Amino acid sequence: MSTGNPTDDGAEGLFARGAVLFDAGHYFAAHDVWEELWTGYRGPLRNFYKGLIQSAVALYHYSRGNLHGARKLWRSSTEYLRPFAPLCRGLDVDRFLAEHERCFADVMASDAPQPLAQRLPPRFHPPREGVGASS
């Protein structure tokens, strides 16, 4: 079992596996993987992982038409992730949050938003040139 230490190979593998699942649109599976990492982790990135978990579940709710759940988790995931900008664990947090906001703009403004399949969900991206490292 992984110790949850961010330098631990098991933790790195869980983080990376969750990112691949997330980018493939398998949001609930990404949530499961990251939750396994988050559950055992007690370090400074705990809220970062929680934000990713909530982002994945927000997108899952959106894809299934649960707008109340999507809105609630979108808001909280954003609050958990924002302190880790501009970069954390190789994730361009600023870009991720901007994409997250664009994706959810319709959900936040309407009770009949476009289906998620017609939106562009956030994705993991390598850091932009010149963006400093964090954590």
From TrEMBL:
Coiled coil: none
Ranges for region Disordered: 116-135
Pfam families, alphabetized: DUF309
Superkingdom of source: Bacteria
Protein name as catalogued: DUF309 domain-containing protein
Organism: Pirellulimonas nuda
Species classification: Bacteria, Pseudomonadati, Planctomycetota, Planctomycetia, Pirellulales
